[in-house]
Amino acid sequence: MIKVNKEGQVWVFAEQHLGKIEDTSLELMGRARELANKLGVQVGAVLLGSSVKNAADMLVHYGADTVYMGEHPLLEHYQTSSYSKILYDVIQKYEPQIMLFGATPVGRDLAPHVASAVKAGLTADCTDLQIGRHEIKKTGEVYDNLLFQIRPAFGGNIIATIINYDRWPQMATVREGVMPMPEPDGRRKGGIVEIKVSLSHADLVVEILDEHRRDKTVNLKASRIIVAGGAGVGSRENFRLIWDLANCLGAVPGASRAAVDLGFIDRDHQVGQTGTTVRPSLYIAAGISGAVQHQAGMSDSKKIIAINNDPDAPIFNVAHYKIVGDLNEVIPAMIKAIKEK
Ligand code: FAD
């Protein structure tokens, strides 16, 4: 049995903005901890920014044994060239066996640059990560302790497990919201290794003069109840029904991609493979057929109520409560019943 690179740590690129760690990176810390425990190695987090010492402490609370911290005024804003160069150097120096990034706009830009620089592979948009063993049938070689990088493929019709047994580190980006958020432990102790950063304006390809962030109008991930509508709702005007039911329940409106594409609601509300992954206490799906790409983003909800006039709609396969009927009758009846309570 060949045990690969057994000393190397499991690393997470800890993305931050103005010193606040992005949720996706914290979610990844939890899974990195689990993977590292299975491998019997430590967890490392790479943190780059302008003034990020507090964020480094937070990463320790979320499970990092070592934070590799690079501070420099010119690292305040993410830039592909500077960030990927520093990551390349630290990977060469410390040789982690696994390197994980959130599949955020920054992670999706940075990870391929780093993977190409260190000549590793990269699996994008994973929805799960496990440790496993693989035998190469042709040669009979067995590789143990490999990272199984799991993600939907072929338009979401299959779930593929991707492994990489001859290039290091094993690298993946992981979708936002698919890993549960770990509980922080303020008593955890960890080390901080300062990365020496020497940068000048001449090293930067782009000069950022100003930054404007569009605040997300909706936080689907944080809401306990989501009322989602699909193409079956029929029109933007009729989507009022979804908003009304959501308001009654203190919920946030969600949507299928078809509803978004048809202009019924803004893209921030989309749930699914190319939208947000959610796991609320209650998910109500009205006029949504339940395509695999939609289910990929909501099937972990604790309770699912589906309203559909087609008794064979696939959404009923994941629903806990099934209402076969016309949403134009069912939703007003639900609103009336809730108001009368
Ligand atoms: P439809 O499939 O058209 O279903 C409408 C449903 O409404 C039907 O089941 C119908 O019976 C029901 N209905 C109609 N009228 C009524 C009524 N009066 N009362 C009750 N029920 C009624 N989709 C997503 O949602 N999220 C994603 O992130 C996503 N990503 C994708 C990524 C890729 C690469 C691809 C290829 C597709 C993706 N899709 C995604 C699209 C997905 O395949 C489906 O096309 C989409 O989810 C369908 O949306 P829908 O269920 O609203 O519409």
TrEMBL record:
Cofactor or coenzyme needed: FAD
Keywords assigned: Electron transport, FAD, Flavoprotein, Transport
Domain Electron transfer flavoprotein alpha/beta-subunit N-terminal: 10-208
Biological process annotations from GO: fatty acid beta-oxidation using acyl-CoA dehydrogenase
Binding positions (FAD): 256-257, 270-274, 287-294, 308
Cofactor note: Binds 1 FAD per dimer.
Domain of life (superkingdom): Bacteria
Molecular function GO terms recorded: electron transfer activity; flavin adenine dinucleotide binding
CDD domains linked: ETF_alpha (cd01715)
InterPro entries the record matches: DHS-like_NAD/FAD-binding_dom (IPR029035), ETF_a/b_N (IPR014730), ETF_a/FixB (IPR001308), ETF_alpha_N (IPR033947), ETF_asu_C (IPR014731), ETF_asu_C_CS (IPR018206), Rossmann-like_a/b/a_fold (IPR014729)
Listed Pfam families: ETF, ETF_alpha
PANTHER family: ELECTRON TRANSFER FLAVOPROTEIN ALPHA, ELECTRON TRANSFER FLAVOPROTEIN SUBUNIT ALPHA, MITOCHONDRIAL
Family, per entry: Belongs to the ETF alpha-subunit/FixB family.
Protein's name according to its UniProt entry: Electron transfer flavoprotein large subunit
Name of the coding gene: etfA_1
